[in-house]
Amino acid sequence: MNTQTPFDLAAVEAIIAQRKATPGALLPILHDIQGVVGYIPPSIVPAIAEGLNISRAEVHGVITYYHFFRQHPVGEHVVQICRAEACQARGCEALADHAKELLGCDFHGTTDDNKFTLQTVYCLGQCASGPAIQIDDDLYARVSKEKFNSLIQAKRGVQ
Ligand code: FES
């Protein structure tokens, strides 16, 4: 996977400069960087650590602790499939296998056309209505294989 994708370094440095004096600034900084760049470039970790006067290990620890934060570039759309307990009881693993086959990539992978990145998530707050998925900012409940197909087709612009 390419971790050398160019990103707007000036924008990232501006985020750090803008927020570094705020108590508890690390999480907001990481959120903002991911919002601008799409992921947290590993090369920016030293600048975050220096800006907040904490160790690189601390920054890295927070990035890896939260599944939300990505360390690699992602495709145009991020597809997250809930694989927590309640969704498992409602068939999310079969849906996950179907998603991998349809998209042609594994979890944490991106499709060849760079359209979709497939990710696992643990609970989307739709436990009674699983399997649940999220595509970008949109939540979907009771997702069958057929519903998944049509959601992906819609994102591809195929109706
Ligand atoms: S377990 Fe899947 S939404 Fe909660």
UniProtKB/TrEMBL annotation:
UniProt keywords, alphabetically: 2Fe-2S, Iron, Iron-sulfur, Metal-binding
Pfam family, one: 2Fe-2S_thioredx
Domain of life: Bacteria
Family designation: Belongs to the complex I 24 kDa subunit family.
InterPro entries linked to this entry: NADP_DH_HndA-like (IPR028431), NuoE-like (IPR002023), NuoE_N (IPR041921), Thioredoxin-like_sf (IPR036249)
Cofactor(s) required, per the database record: [2Fe-2S] cluster
Name recorded for this polypeptide: Formate dehydrogenase subunit gamma
SUPFAM superfamilies reported in the protein's UniProt record: Thioredoxin-like
Entries under NCBIfam families matching the protein: PRK05988.1
Record CDD domains: TRX_Fd_NuoE_FDH_gamma
Species for this entry: Herminiimonas glaciei
